[in-house]
C-alpha cells in the first residue's frame, strides 16, 4: 500500500484500516468501499474443545503491503492530522478540502472567455480572425464587412453550442452527486446530511450497498468481530470479495452511546473498494472532495487529437506557404506595374491621384509606392483566404458526429448480456481507429469474463476429466434440506458419475481420499456463502463470494459433489457433507501470498482431530509434499497437471496432513510471537507458515477454466491477421497470463519466449514480436509501457480495459476503450469509446475504423482541392486586371462557395461512402493495413492533388477567358460563369470518386449544383448588389453552356486517366472492390496472394 494511517485514542496508538470512496461522478456507480487493513493479524475469542484460543488470520505476505508497512512512521511534515469527531478543529487548522466535487469545465461567467480561448488554440481560427479584422479597415476592405465575419462566427458558434451542452451534462451529474444524503454523527445521533456539506473529521455511517461519500477510516462494522467483505470492482474490475478487518479497540465503541475522540495521522488515500455482506459500517472522513482517491485519479481525460488532423496541419502549413507565395507574386507584380505606369496614375482608373469629379480638384488617398505594395499584399491575403479551408473544421466535426451515430447504432456491437450499446465518448479521433498498430489489453474482465468453471481433477493419481458427464441432468448436483427449505448451489459443474460414487464410499481408502480432496476444496478458502431467493419459496440458492474466482469455482465443485459450505463465521465453518451437517472450528488461516504461492487452513474437526489443508501452485506445492509416501501418485498428478496446462486450464495442487497436539501448540506459540512482533512481522509470519506447511500428503490437483469472453480467440486472430500487435498487460502471475494467452489464441505452443525486466530490453525484445504478455504489471507500469511504444515508434496505440487500474493506460494511449457492463465504470468514464465485449474490437477497427479513416482522408484532401481551385481562379484573374485585387466573383458567392455550394456533398460522402462492404473487410483483415501505412492520406497524394488542382484551375479560368476575349461580356458575367464552372467541376470530381451511392448522395451532389444556379440568379437579381442581371446576360448564349461542358471535360481528363491506370495496376483495396463487383470470379488464389504481403511476416511472440 502507498500509505499508512494510525489513530490515537486515550493515549493508545494502534493501526486501523482505511476506508475510501469512489467519488466524483463515478462514485455513484459503486457502493461502500474500504481500504485494505493495515494489519494482517486479527484476534477474536472463540470456544472450542481445544480450549479458548484466539483465531489466527495472517501471513498475507508481500502482496499485502500493509504488513510490511503497518509500523512505518509517518513523517509529521508529510502527515495529515484528522481529529476524530471534531471537524471544526480539523478543518480550521489544516484548511482541508470540502466534499463538494466539480467535474464541469465552465461556469456561466467563464464559459465565453474560456471557450473562445480554447477554440483559438487552432491556429487556423486565429488566421481567419486576423483576416476578418483586416477586412474591416477601409484601406483593405475587399469583401463586405459582414460577409467576411460570417464563416468564422458560424464555426465558433456551432462549436460553442456543442461544448456548452457537454458541460451542462457534467454540471447536472455534479449536482446529483453533491446532493446525495449520508448519515453523519451530530449531537450523539446520526442525521442526514448532503454529501457536499460533509467535512473531514466527521463520523459517518453507511449501510450495505450504499455509496461512500468520501474516503474514510473504518471504525466498526455490523459484524461483532469487525470483519467486512469488500469488492474491488472499481479498482481492478474484479467482482470477487476480499476480507478486511476493523480493530477491536474501535469496534467495541458505539459513537451514539459514548463520545469518541482521537487523532488520525495518515498519508494519501489508497484505493477504491465496495463493502458487501455487511449491514452497516462506521468510519471517520479523512479525505473529501477533490482530495479523495477517485478524484485524484480522475484528472480528466487528456485532450486527444487525431493523427490525421495532426498531419493535416503540416499540409495546412504548406498551403499557407503557397498562399504567401501567391500574395508575394501579386504584390511584386503590382509594384512593377506601378513603376511602369507612374506617370499615368493621376488619371488612370483605380489609381487616380486626383479627383476631378468636383469643381475643386482633390487628391485621393494615395500612400506611395511602398505602402501600396504592402496594402496589396494584405488585400491578397484577404481575397485568397479560402486557401486555408475554415469550413474543413466544421465539416470534420459534422462528419465525426455522423460516423459516431452509425457506430452507436451498429447492432453488431450491442452487448445483450449487459444491455449496453457502443458509446462514442470522444468525437475527435474516430479516424484513428483505422490506423491502430498496437493494442494493449487488460486481462481480467476484458479478455475473460472473470468467471471460473471447474473442469477436471486429478485425485489419488487418477484423472477425472468430467468426460462421462454429457447431459444437463448431470449438472443438477447436490441439494440439502434445512428448516423445511431446499438449498442448492447457485452454480453447478458437470458431474463425473464415477467420482460421485467414489465420494460416497467413506469406509474405503479411495473414498476417504476423494472425501478429503473435496473437504479441502470446501474449507481451504475465504469464501462467504450467501442465500439467494428464487421464484420457488421452498427453494433457495447458495451463492459463494470470495477473494478469488478460482476459490468460488472450487467451492461450487465441492458443493456439486455433496460437500456444501453453508455457513462461515469468524470462528467456524459449517459444511454439509452429503446430507450430514458438520461444524469445523477455524483454528488458523495462512492466506495466499506471492512468495509462498499457497494458502492453508487449520481446522478443528468434529472428531477432535486437527487437520491442515493446503492448496497452491504446483511449483510451490510439490516442494512441501512428502513424495516418499506415494511417489507414483505424485508422478501421475504431475503428468495430469501438464495435460491440464496444455489445455489452458488454471491448476492448483491440494495437500493435507493431520497435526498432533504438540505440533499445533508449537505452531500456535510461534504464530503468537510472530504476530506480536513490531518489526519484520510479514517475514516471521511467512516463516511460521512455511514451517507448518510441509510433509503434506498429496490429495490431487484441480483444473479450472477462466472462461474467455465470447469470441475473444477469433477476435485476437483477426487482429493479428490485420497486422495489429496485441499486448496483454496484467497483474496476474506469469503462469496464469501464459495460460490465458494460449486459450485466447494470443500465443501458440511454438511462439512463446520470455523476457526479463527493463524498458530497454522490453522494447528491443517486444519490437520483434507480434504478441507480448506482460505479467505482474502495476497500473502506472501499464501506462509506462504504452508511453514507451508511443515515444519510441510512430505507430498508433490503443488501450482497452475495464477497471480503474486501467485508467492511466487508457488515457495514455492514442485511443482508449473502456469495457462497460457489470464491472466498474471508471475505465468507461476515462475512455474515448466504450463497448460491452472485447470481440467488438474487430468490427470497430476493421470495419468502422477502416471506413472512418478512408472517408476522413478523402474529405480532407478534397477540401484542400476544392478551395485551392477557387483561389487559383481568383489568382489568374488578378494577373489580368493590373493586380488590383478586384474580383469578378461576387462577395456573397465567395462566402457561399464553402458554405452552400460545395460543403454538403463532402459531408454526406464523408459519413456514408464505403469503399468496401463489412463482409469483405471482416473476411480479409489484411485490408486494414491500408490505414496503418497511411495509403489514403500522405505527402505523395497531397502533392498529386496540388498538381491536379493547378491543371483544373487553368482550364476553368482560361477556357472562358479565351472564349470571351473579344466579346463585350463584363467581368461580373464571367465571374458567374467561373463560379458555376468551378462548382460543377468539383462536384463531378467528387461524384467520380463516390463508391456507394445512396439517394441522399445524389441529392447532395446534384442538389448543390442546382442550388448554386439558384443562388447566383438570386444574387444577380438584387439591384443593390454588384453584377445586377449579369448571369441572365451570359446564360442566354450558347457559348456559356459550351464553355461549361468544355471546362468540366477538359479539367477532369487527368483524373479520369489516373483512375483508368489504377484499374490495371490495382492496390489491395481495389482488388477487393473488384471482387465485390464481379463476385467470385476475381476472388482467385492469386488475388488473395496479392493481399497477403501487406503486413510484416510473423515473428516470435514475447511473454
UniProtKB/TrEMBL annotation:
P-type ATPase N-terminal domain boundaries: 82-148
Enzyme kind, highest EC tier: translocase
Pfam families membership: Cation_ATPase, PhoLip_ATPase_C, PhoLip_ATPase_N
Listed transmembrane segments: 123-141, 147-165, 316-338, 373-394, 864-889, 895-912, 941-965, 971-990, 997-1019, 1039-1058
Keyword match Membrane: yes
Catalytic function, reaction form: ATP + H2O + phospholipidSide 1 = ADP + phosphate + phospholipidSide 2
Region annotated Disordered, chain positions: 1079-1103
Keyword Heme: no
Alphabetical list of SUPFAM superfamilies matching this protein: Calcium ATPase, transduction domain A, Calcium ATPase, transmembrane domain M, HAD-like, Metal cation-transporting ATPase, ATP-binding domain N
Keyword field: ATP-binding, Magnesium, Membrane, Metal-binding, Nucleotide-binding, Translocase, Transmembrane, Transmembrane helix
Localisation: Membrane
Coiled-coil annotated spans: none
Topology class, membrane: Multi-pass membrane protein
Its EC number(s): 7.6.2.1
Domain P-type ATPase C-terminal: 828-1063
Family: Belongs to the cation transport ATPase (P-type) (TC 3.A.3) family. Type IV subfamily.
Full protein name: Phospholipid-transporting ATPase
Species the sequence originates in: Rehmannia glutinosa (Chinese foxglove)
Amino acid at each position: 500500500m502507498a500509505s499508512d494511517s494510525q489513530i490515537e485514542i486515550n493515549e493508545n496508538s494502534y493501526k486501523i484500516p482505511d476506508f475510501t470512496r469512489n467519488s466524483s461522478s463515478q462514485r455513484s456507480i459503486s457502493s461502500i468501499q474500504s481500504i485494505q487493513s493495515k494489519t494482517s493479524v486479527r484476534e477474536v475469542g472463540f470456544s472450542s474443545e481445544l480450549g479458548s484460543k484466539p483465531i489466527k488470520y495472517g501471513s498475507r505476505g508481500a502482496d499485502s503491503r500493509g504488513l510490511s508497512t503497518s509500523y512505518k512512521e509517518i513523517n509529521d511534515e508529510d502527515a495529515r492530522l484528522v481529529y476524530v469527531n471534531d471537524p471544526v478543529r480539523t478543518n480550521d487548522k489544516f484548511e482541508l478540502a470540502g466534499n463538494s466535487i466539480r467535474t464541469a469545465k465552465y461556469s456561466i461567467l467563464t464559459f465565453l472567455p474560456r471557450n473562445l480561448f480554447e477554440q483559438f488554440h487552432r491556429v487556423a481560427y486565429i488566421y481567419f480572425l486576423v483576416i476578418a479584422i483586416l477586412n474591416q479597415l477601409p484601406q483593405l476592405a475587399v469583401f463586405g464587412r459582414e460577409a467576411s465575419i460570417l464563416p468564422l462566427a458560424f464555426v465558433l458558434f456551432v462549436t460553442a453550442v456543442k461544448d456548452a451542452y457537454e458541460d451542462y451534462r457534467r454540471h447536472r451529474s455534479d449536482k446529483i452527486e453533491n446532493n446525495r444524503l449520508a448519515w453523519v454523527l451530530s449531537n450523539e445521533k446520526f442525521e442526514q446530511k448532503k454529501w457536499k456539506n460533509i467535512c473531514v473529521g466527521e463520523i459517518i455511517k453507511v449501510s450495505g450497498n450504499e455509496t461512500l461519500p468520501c474516503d474514510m477510516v473504518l471504525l466498526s462494522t455490523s459484524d461483532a468481530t469487525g470483519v467486512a467483505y469488500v469488492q474491488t470492482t472499481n479498482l481492478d474490475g474484479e467482482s470477487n470479495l476480499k476480507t478486511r478487518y476493523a480493530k477491536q479497540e474501535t469496534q467495541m465503541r458505539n459513537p451514539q452511546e459514548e463520545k469518541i475522540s482521537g487523532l488520525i495521522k495518515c498519508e494519501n488515500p489508497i484505493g477504491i473498494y465496495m463493502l458487501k455482506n455487511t449491514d452497516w459500517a462506521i468510519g471517520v472522513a479523512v479525505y473529501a472532495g477533490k482530495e479523495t482517491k477517485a478524484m485524484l485519479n480522475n484528472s480528466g481525460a487528456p485532450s486527444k487529437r487525431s493523427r490525421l488532423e495532426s498531419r493535416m496541419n503540416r499540409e495546412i502549413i504548406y498551403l499557407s506557404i503557397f498562399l504567401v507565395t501567391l500574395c508575394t507574386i501579386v504584390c511584386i507584380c503590382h509594384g512593377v506595374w506601378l513603376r511602369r505606369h507612374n506617370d499615368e496614375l493621376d488619371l488612370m482608373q483605380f489609381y487616380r491621384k486626383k479627383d476631378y469629379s468636383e469643381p475643386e480638384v482633390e487628391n485621393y488617398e494615395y500612400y506611395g509606392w511602398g505602402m501600396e505594395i504592402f496594402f496589396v499584399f494584405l488585400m491578397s491575403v484577404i481575397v485568397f483566404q479560402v486557401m486555408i479551408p475554415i469550413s474543413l473544421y466544421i465539416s470534420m466535426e459534422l462528419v465525426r458526429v455522423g460516423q459516431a451515430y452509425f457506430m452507436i447504432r451498429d447492432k453488431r456491437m450491442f452487448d445483450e448480456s449487459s444491455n449496453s450499446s457502443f458509446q462514442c465518448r470522444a468525437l475527435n479521433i474516430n479516424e484513428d481507429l483505422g490506423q491502430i498498430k498496437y493494442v494493449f489489453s487488460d486481462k481480467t474482465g476484458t479478455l475473460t469474463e472473470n468467471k471460473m468453471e471447474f473442469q477436471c481433477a486429478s485425485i489419488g493419481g487418477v484423472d477425472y476429466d468430467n468426460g462421462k458427464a454429457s447431459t444437463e441432468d448431470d449438472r443438477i448436483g447436490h441439494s440439502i434440506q434445512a428448516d423445511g427449505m431446499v438449498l442448492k448451489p447457485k452454480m453447478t459443474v458437470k458431474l463425473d458419475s464415477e467420482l460421485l460414487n467414489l465420494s460416497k464410499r467413506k469406509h474405503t481408502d479411495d473414498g476417504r481420499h476423494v472425501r478429503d480432496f473435496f473437504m479441502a476444496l470446501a474449507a481451504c478458502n475465504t469464501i462467504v456463502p450467501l442465500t439467494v431467493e428464487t421464484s420457488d419459496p421452498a427453494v433457495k440458492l447458495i451463492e459463494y463470494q470470495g477473494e478469488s474466482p478460482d476459490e468460488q469455482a472450487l467451492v461450487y465443485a465441492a458443493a456439486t459433489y455433496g460437500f456444501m459450505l453453508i455457513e462461515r463465521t469468524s470462528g467456524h465453518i459449517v459444511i454439509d457433507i452429503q446430507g450430514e451437517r458438520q461444524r469445523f472450528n477455524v483454528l488458523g488461516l495462512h492466506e495466499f501470498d506471492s512468495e509462498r504461492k499457497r494458502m492453508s487452513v487449520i481446522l478443528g474437526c468434529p472428531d477432535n482431530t486437527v487437520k491442515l489443508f493446503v492448496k497452491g501452485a504446483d511449483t510451490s506445492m510439490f516442494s512441501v509434499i512428502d513424495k516418499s509416501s506415494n511417489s507414483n501418485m505424485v508422478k501421475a498428478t504431475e503428468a495430469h497437471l501438464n495435460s491440464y496446462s496444455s489445455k489452458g486450464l488454471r491448476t492448483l495442487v491440494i495437500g493435507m496432513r493431520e497435526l498432533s497436539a504438540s505440533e499445533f501448540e508449537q505452531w500456535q506459540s510461534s504464530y503468537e510471537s510472530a504476530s506480536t512482533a513490531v518489526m519484520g512481522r510479514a517475514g516471521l509470519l511467512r516463516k511460521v507458515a512455511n514451517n507448518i506447511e510441509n510433509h503434506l500428503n498429496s490429495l490431487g490437483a484441480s483444473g479450472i477454466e477462466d472462461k474467455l469472453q465470447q469470441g475473444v480467440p477469433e477476435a485476437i486472430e483477426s487482429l493479428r491477421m490485420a497486422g495489429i500487435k496485441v499486448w496483454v498487460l496484467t497483474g496476474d502471475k506469469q503462469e496464469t497470463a501464459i495460460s490465458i494467452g494460449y486459450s485466447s489464441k494470443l500465443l501458440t505452443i511454438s511462439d512463446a519466449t520470455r523476457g526479463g525486466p527493463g524498458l530497454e530490453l522490453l522494447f528491443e525484445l517486444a519490437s520483434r514480436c507480434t504478441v507480448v504478455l506482460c505479467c505482474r504489471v502495476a497500473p502506472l507500469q501499464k501506462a509506462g509501457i504504452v508511453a514507451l511504444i508511443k515515444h519510441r515508434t510512430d505507430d498508433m496505440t490503443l488501450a482497452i480495459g475495464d477497471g480503474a487500474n486501467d485508467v492511466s493506460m487508457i488515457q495514455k494511449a492514442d485511443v482508449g476503450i473502456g469495457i462497460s457492463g457489470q464491472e466498474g465504470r471508471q475505465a468507461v468514464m476515462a475512455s474515448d469509446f466504450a463497448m460491452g465485449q472485447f470481440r467488438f474490437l474487430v468490427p470497430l477497427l476493421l470495419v468502422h475504423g477502416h471506413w472512418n479513416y478512408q472517408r476522413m482522408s478523402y474529405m480532407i484532401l478534397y477540401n484542400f482541392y476544392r478551395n485551392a481551385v477557387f483561389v487559383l481562379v481568383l489568382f489568374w484573374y488578378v494577373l489580368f486586371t493590373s493586380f488590383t485585387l478586384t474580383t469578378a466573383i461576387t462577395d456573397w458567392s465567395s462566402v457561399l462557395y464553402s458554405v452552400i455550394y460545395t460543403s454538403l456533398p463532402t459531408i454526406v460522402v464523408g459519413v456514408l461512402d464505403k469503399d468496401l462492404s463489412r463482409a469483405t473487410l471482416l473476411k480479409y483483415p489484411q485490408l486494414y493495413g491500408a490505414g496503418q501505412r497511411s495509403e489514403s492520406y500522405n505527402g505523395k497524394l497531397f502533392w498529386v492533388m496540388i498538381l491536379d488542382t493547378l491543371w483544373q484551375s487553368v482550364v476553368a479560368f482560361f477556357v472562358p477567358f479565351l472564349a470571351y476575349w473579344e466579346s463585350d461580356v463584363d467581368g461580373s458575367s464571367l465571374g458567374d460563369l467561373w463560379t458555376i464552372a468551378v462548382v460543377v467541376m468539383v462536384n463531378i470530381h467528387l461524384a467520380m470518386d463516390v463508391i456507394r451511392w445512396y439517394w441522399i448522395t445524389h441529392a447532395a451532389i446534384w442538389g448543390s449544383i442546382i442550388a448554386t444556379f439558384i443562388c447566383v440568379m438570386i444574387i444577380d437579381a438584387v439591384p443593390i448588389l454588384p453584377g445586377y442581371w449579369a448571369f441572365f446576360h451570359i446564360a442566354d448564349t450558347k457559348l456559356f453552356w459550351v464553355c461549361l461542358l468544355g471546362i468540366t471535360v477538359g479539367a477532369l481528363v487527368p483524373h479520369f486517366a489516373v483512375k483508368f491506370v489504377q484499374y490495371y495496376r490495382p492496390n489491395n483495396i481495389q482488388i477487393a472492390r473488384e471482387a465485390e463487383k464481379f463476385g467470385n470470379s476475381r476472388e482467385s488464389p492469386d488475388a488473395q496472394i496479392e493481399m497477403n504481403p501487406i503486413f510484416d511476416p510473423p515473428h516470435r511472440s514475447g511473454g
